[in-house]
Amino acid sequence: MSKFKLKKSTHTPEVSTASLPDIVFMLLFFFMTVTVMKDDTLKVVNELPNATEIKKLEKKNRIITIYIGKPVKKFEESQGNQLKIQMDDRFVNLADLGSKVLEAINERPEYIRGFITISLKVDKKASMGLIDDVKEELRKINALKINYTTYEGDTYKNLE
To answer: Membrane-crossing residues (predicted)?
Structure first.
């Protein structure tokens, strides 16, 4: 039998932090690649109506969004409280709408231009008069593919 006994250490080994910076940077790069920035800052009231038959538009690079509604309180003093058209974070006059939409179409790659959809996000309390005028301006520039953005839900809620 042996005379020597091994002493058991009661001290636990320290956790290695050598890989901690790698993990932090890996998480940072992950969140940087999957985060989507908000496109537009709304300057008009935009409570969308409900609809039952809806379809999601898949390719966001083929969509030009036009908002129609009354200005939010922040812009009421400078813009009034009549219905306004907003496109790309700025108000657009009805007469300038066609040229602004053409500019937005020409900013897109050439292979996409034929597939551009104009998405109208119209406040449910907006009158049809301005919407008809917007559609007429879009017809003049041959932008005929129009989508109305809605929420999925009971259409009777639109009457409230």
So the answer is: 20-37
